[in-house]
Amino acid sequence: MNLTLATDDTGGPEIFASLQGEGPSAGMPVAFVRLSRCNLACQWCDTAYTWRFEGDNRPHRDGIAFKRKANQVTLSPADTAERIAALGQKRLVITGGEPLLQAPALAEMLGHLPDIAVEIETNGTVAPLVRLDVRVDQYNVSPKLAHSGNPADRALIPERLDAWASDPRAFLKFVVASPEDVDEVLALHGRHRFRPERVFLMAEGTDSATLRARQVWLSELCLKHGFRMSDRMHIHLYGDTRGT
User: Which distant-in-sequence residues (6+ apart) come within 8 Å of 104 by Cβ?
Assistant: First the structure.
């Protein structure tokens, strides 16, 4: 079974080395692999080229429909692992799209990378496959709030949120666009009993000016409620670009 990956600006698979820009591992040197396809559709998604292909009418604020053939590439798990290993990093971040949709092929890929630490970035709606789960050191779980445009019954599945709340490897990262969004985080926090030190609030934005403006009030809310704040370091360094 092959993996379906997103493409970089050259049309090759989006596999690259960079610094992790978000969450608990921010600033760490890592290898990234970005997979294609997602079961949700966030209207502000900054990687819509992984899912909003021509013929997909799910709403997105940019209104762009991408050509599937130009934005997807398939590789075998072994070939993908070889490209990752060539980057020489000790830690791997698997992102998307929604990576857990391709769990069997990911498990096979990681079988070729026995000595690398693994982070998976997920929207939290898909239960991990056991033979993949045993290889994961950290889950960066980003449940989608109402402002994402996803219906709650698809984006916020109670049994999955309970499972993430009890997994010591899981960190919760909520994308916040307005102070009112934090009320929704607090309601979920009360219902699922997330550990506050494992909850990150991250401003929505794809440019430094927007992020900095929102972080002014977001930092105050993090201080008030005991949550952590995540920046988007890669946006400040490279802008909203692929392969960074």
Answer: 1, 129, 132
Instruction: Give the three-state DSSP class for 194.
Output: coil
Q: 125: left (phi > 0), else alpha (psi -120 to 50), else beta?
A: alpha
SS3 15: strand
Give the β-pairing of 15-19 and 29-34.
antiparallel
**Residues whose CB is less than 8 angstroms from the CB of residue 230 and which lie 6 or more positions away in sequence, other chains included:** 22, 23, 26, 173, 200, 201, 202
Over residues 43-102, the pLDDT tens digits come to: 999 999 999 999 999 999 999 999 999 999 999 999 999 999 999 999 999 999 999 999
Burial classification of residue 46, based on how many CB atoms lie within 10 Å of its CB (0-12 exposed, 13-18 middle, 19 or more buried): middle
The residues that bridge with 16 in the sheet, in sequence order, are 32
Sheet holding 228-230, edge to edge: 15-19, 29-34, 91-95, 117-122, 138-141, 170-176, 199-203, 228-230
End-to-end CA gap in the chain = 27
Against a cut of 0.85, is the pTM above it?
Answer: yes
pLDDT digits (tens, 9 = 90+) for 165-217: 999 999 999 999 999 999 999 999 999 999 999 999 999 999 999 999 999 99
**Is residue 54 within 8 Å of residue 25, measured between CB atoms?**
no
| Alpha-helical runs (H) found in the chain | 68-71, 77-85, 103-110, 130-133, 152-155, 158-166, 179-192, 208-225, 233-238
